[in-house]
Write a sequence for this structure.
C-alpha cells in the first residue's frame, strides 16, 4: 500500500512571483527586500494594481466631466446675461470700448484739467449703465486674466447679438400686423417681404416721415421717395411714429412725444412677453392703465408663461436706453431694409439711438428733468403697472406711520423716564 505524501509539490519559481506570494512568505520577502536594497519596489498584486489604476482613471474622467460641465454652465450664464446688453446698455458700441474708457478715466484721475469729448462721455455713461445692468461684471474684470476676460466678453457679445436678432424677428410680425390693423393698406403689409415696407408703402411711409413734414402732401412724398436734397430723411428728425396718435405740435414738439401705443406694445412684446403686449389698450394716463392691470391679473391666473426678460435681469423700471432700443427696432421693422445695419441710406441708427438717450439724460434744467421723469414714470406704469415697492427706500419708509408710531412711543418712554 502506497502511503500518501502530503508535502506540496508546487514549483519553487512560482513562489517568487509577486502575485502568488502567501501572506507569510510575502511579509518575509518584503522585509528581505527592504534590508537588501531599499531602492527596489515592494511586490504588489497585479489585480490590486489594476483596481487602483481603474479607480484613478475613473476619478480623472469625473474631474474632466465636472470641468466640462462648469465651462458649459459658465458659457450658458454669460450668453444669457449678455442678452440684456443691446436692450439695456448700448446698441452698437463694443464692450471693449466701454471698458477701455473707464480704465482711461481711472488712470487719468489726477489730471483734473483734462477735457473729455462727448464721445468719451457717452462711453463712460455706457460703462456705468453696463455695471448697473450686470452688477457682477466689474468684479470679474478685475479677477480674471486677459484670456479669461476675452472669453467672457465673447460670450456676452454672442448673447447680445443673438437677442437683437431674435427681437428683430419677433417685431417684424408684430409691427406688420399692427400697421395692417391700424391703416388697412392695400395691399396689406407682408412680414416676410420687406420690399412692401419703407417709403414704398403709404402706411409705413407716413410713420417713417419726419415730424416736420406732412406725408400727405404730394411734394413731400415724392421728394422723400426720390431722395431729393430738399427732403433728406436722417437721424436728425423724429419720425411720426414716435408721437401719440401721429399728431405733432410744431410749437411744442415734446407734446405727445414717445407716447404712441405701438411703442408700448413693442416694448412689452420684447421685455415681458408677446402675449402681454395684447394687454395694453389706449394711450391715456389713468383709467386704461387700471383696466390693463385688472386684465393682466385675470390672465396671469389662467396662463403659465416663461420667465420674462425683465425678471431675468431684475428690471423694475423702464430706462432711456431700453426705450431707445425699442424705437430703433420699430423703425427698422417699418423700413424696407432686409438686414440689420448701422446706416440705412442717410439714416444712422447709432446716432439716432444716442439722440433718444440724450433726450432723457441731457436736459437744460430741473423743469425739463421733471417732465422727463414723468414720461419715464408713464412708461413704467404702462409696462409694469402701478406697483412701486422698489421705490420704498429707507428714507421713504422712515416717514411712514409704522416707523413714526414707533418713534413716538420711544420719545414718550424717554420723557416718562426723565420725569421720574
Amino acid at each position: 500500500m502506497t502511503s500518501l505524501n502530503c508535502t506540496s509539490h508546487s514549483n519553487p519559481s512560482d513562489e517568487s512571483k509577486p502575485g502568488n506570494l502567501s501572506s507569510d512568505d510575502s511579509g518575509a520577502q518584503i522585509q528581505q527586500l527592504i534590508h537588501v536594497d531599499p531602492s527596489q519596489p515592494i511586490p504588489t498584486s497585479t489585480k490590486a494594481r489594476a483596481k487602483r489604476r481603474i479607480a484613478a482613471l475613473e476619478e480623472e474622467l469625473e474631474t474632466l466631466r465636472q470641468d466640462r460641465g462648469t465651462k458649459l454652465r459658465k458659457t450658458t450664464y454669460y450668453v444669457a446675461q449678455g442678452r440684456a446688453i443691446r436692450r439695456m446698455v448700448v446698441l452698437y458700441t463694443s464692450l471693449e470700448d466701454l471698458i477701455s474708457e473707464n480704465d482711461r478715466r481711472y488712470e487719468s484721475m489726477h489730471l483734473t484739467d483734462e477735457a473729455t469729448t462727448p464721445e468719451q462721455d457717452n462711453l463712460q455713461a455706457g460703462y456705468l449703465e453696463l455695471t448697473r445692468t450686470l452688477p457682477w461684471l466689474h468684479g470679474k474684470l478685475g479677477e480674471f486674466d486677459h484670456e479669461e476676460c476675452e472669453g467672457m466678453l465673447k460670450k456676452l457679445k454672442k448673447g447680445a447679438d443673438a437677442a437683437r436678432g431674435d427681437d428683430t424677428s419677433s417685431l417684424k410680425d408684430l409691427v406688420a400686423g399692427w400697421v395692417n390693423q391700424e391703416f388697412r393698406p392695400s395691399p396689406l403689409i407682408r412680414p416676410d417681404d420687406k420690399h412692401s415696407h419703407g417709403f414704398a408703402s403709404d402706411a409705413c411711409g407716413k410713420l417713417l416721415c419726419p415730424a416736420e413734414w406732412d406725408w400727405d402732401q404730394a411734394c413731400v412724398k415724392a421728394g422723400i421717395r426720390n431722395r431729393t436734397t430738399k427732403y433728406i430723411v436722417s437721424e436728425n428728425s423724429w419720425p411720426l411714429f414716435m408721437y401719440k396718435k401721429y399728431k405733432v405740435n410744431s410749437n411744442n414738439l415734446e407734446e405727445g412725444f414717445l407716447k404712441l401705443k405701438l411703442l408700448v406694445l413693442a416694448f412689452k412684446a420684447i421685455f415681458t412677453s408677446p402675449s402681454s403686449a395684447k394687454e395694453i389698450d389706449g394711450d391715456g394716463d389713468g383709467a386704461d392703465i387700471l383696466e390693463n392691470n385688472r386684465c393682466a391679473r385675470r390672465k396671469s391666473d389662467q396662463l403659465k408663461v416663461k420667465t420674462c426678460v425683465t425678471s431675468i435681469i431684475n428690471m423694475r423700471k423702464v430706462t432711456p436706453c431700453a426705450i431707445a432700443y425699442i424705437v430703433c427696432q420699430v423703425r427698422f421693422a417699418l423700413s424696407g431694409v432686409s438686414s440689420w445695419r448701422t446706416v440705412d441710406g442717410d439714416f444712422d441708427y447709432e446716432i439716432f439711438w444716442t439722440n433718444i438717450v440724450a433726450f432723457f439724460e441731457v436736459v437744460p434744467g430741473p423743469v425739463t428733468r421733471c417732465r422727463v421723469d414723468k414720461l419715464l414714470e408713464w412708461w413704467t406704469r404702462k409696462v409694469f403697472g402701478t406697483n412701486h415697492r422698489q421705490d420704498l427706500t429707507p428714507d421713504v419708509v422712515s416717514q411712514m406711520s409704522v416707523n413714526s408710531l414707533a418713534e413716538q412711543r420711544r420719545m414718550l418712554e424717554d420723557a416718562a423716564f426723565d420725569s421720574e
Remarks:
- Residues 146-183 form the longest helix (38 residues).
